[in-house]
């Protein structure tokens, strides 16, 4: 794992959260994006070498909607940048972690992503992410 890539925060209203985080971080989001397959709208802020990702549900059956209903607004996940997501998934499976995605899937911000079940990580949903565009 290279670094903390971002911290995901579930919010009910991404526009009001954007206003708050813009004021808090003294910068505007650099990107907003909808990931239809996950039923989520995202907004990204850069802070130092990491990012903050705000997540708003776009449909009531999405993972973010279920999270908000159960736990309310707050930290949803922590994401780690990896060099080779497929080998990292295999390594973590070999270490006994429960991987929720056998194969990486397309996520927001041009990333391939996979998640570890929070029951095996002290209640923290862990996201692995790798740039989807290979570097030359």
TrEMBL record:
<keyword id="KW-0456">Lyase</keyword>
<comment type="similarity">
    <text>Belongs to the methylmalonyl-CoA epimerase family.</text>
</comment>
<dbReference type="InterPro" id="IPR029068">
    <property type="entry name" value="Glyas_Bleomycin-R_OHBP_Dase"/>
</dbReference>
<dbReference type="InterPro" id="IPR017515">
    <property type="entry name" value="MeMalonyl-CoA_epimerase"/>
</dbReference>
<dbReference type="GO" id="GO:0046872">
    <property type="term" value="F:metal ion binding"/>
</dbReference>
<dbReference type="InterPro" id="IPR037523">
    <property type="entry name" value="VOC_core"/>
</dbReference>
<feature type="domain" description="VOC">
    <location>
        <begin position="3"/>
        <end position="131"/>
    </location>
</feature>
<protein>
    <submittedName>
        <fullName>Lactoylglutathione lyase</fullName>
    </submittedName>
</protein>
<dbReference type="GO" id="GO:0016829">
    <property type="term" value="F:lyase activity"/>
</dbReference>
<dbReference type="Pfam" id="PF13669">
    <property type="entry name" value="Glyoxalase_4"/>
</dbReference>
<dbReference type="GO" id="GO:0004493">
    <property type="term" value="F:methylmalonyl-CoA epimerase activity"/>
</dbReference>
<keyword id="KW-0479">Metal-binding</keyword>
<dbReference type="InterPro" id="IPR051785">
    <property type="entry name" value="MMCE/EMCE_epimerase"/>
</dbReference>
<dbReference type="GO" id="GO:0046491">
    <property type="term" value="P:L-methylmalonyl-CoA metabolic process"/>
</dbReference>
């Amino acid at each position: 794992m290279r670094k903390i890539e971002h911290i995901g925060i579930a919010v009910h209203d991404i526009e009001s959260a954007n206003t708050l985080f813009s004021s808090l971080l003294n910068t505007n989001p650099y990107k907003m994006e909808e990931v239809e397959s996950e039923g989520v709208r995202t907004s990204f802020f850069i802070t130092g070498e990491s990012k903050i990702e705000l997540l708003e549900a776009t449909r009531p059956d999405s993972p973010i909607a279920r999270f908000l209903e159960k736990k309310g607004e707050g930290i949803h996940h922590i994401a780690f940048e990896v060099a080779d997501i497929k080998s990292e998934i295999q390594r973590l499976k070999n270490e006994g972690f429960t991987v929720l995605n056998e194969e990486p899937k397309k996520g927001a911000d041009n990333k391939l992503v996979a998640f570890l079940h929070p029951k095996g990580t002290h209640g923290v949903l862990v996201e692995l992410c790798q740039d989807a565009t290979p570097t030359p």
